[in-house]
Amino acid sequence: MKERLGGKMDDVRARELLEAERRRVEQLLQEAIEAGQQNRSAANESGDMADPAERLTAEQVDDAVTVGLRERLGAVERAEARLREGIYGRSVKSGIRIPDERLEADPAAELTVEEAAQG
Asked: Distance between CA atoms of 108 and 63, rounded to whole angstroms?
């Protein structure tokens, strides 16, 4: 298999990992959006005597989950672009190769573990 600039992981495996992650995140995002809509609909039904603060907290949690999943989807999209460009598997900060073990665990990884720990 042809090795690209990104390192040892071949393009086929990288594509498989990214496609699986995209499907997972899109499914979770759809479920979160639907749950948020259901929670808001239920809260607006007449006769609901629930604490307004609980409803607001639930809506904020739903919104935070949705934002986080959209950010994750963006990371997957950036990783897919790096794969197309032939630079997948390299840190976007330093260009250092990201170990395959990290990419297997997080196919959208943009940094090495050390760089991510530095913040």
From this structure: 22
Tokens of 73: 């989807």
pLDDT for position 35: 84
Minimal CA–CA distance to 36: which of 22, 56, 52, 13? 56
82: Cβ contacts below 8 Å, ≥ 6 apart: 6, 88, 89, 90, 92
**38-61 confidence digits (pLDDT tens):** 766 666 665 555 566 666 677 788
Residue by residue, what is the 3-state secondary structure of the chain?
Answer: CCCECCECCCHHHHHHHHHHHHHHHHHHHHHHHHHHHHHHHHHHCCCCCCCHHHHHHHHHHHHHHHHHHHHHHHHHHHHHHHHHHCCCCECCCCCCECCHHHHHHCCCCCCCHHHHHHC
Task: For residues 13 and 28, give the distance between their C-alpha atoms in angstroms, rounded to a whole number.
Answer: 23
From the CB of residue 17, how many other CB atoms can be counted at a distance below 10 Å? 20
pLDDT of residue 42: 64
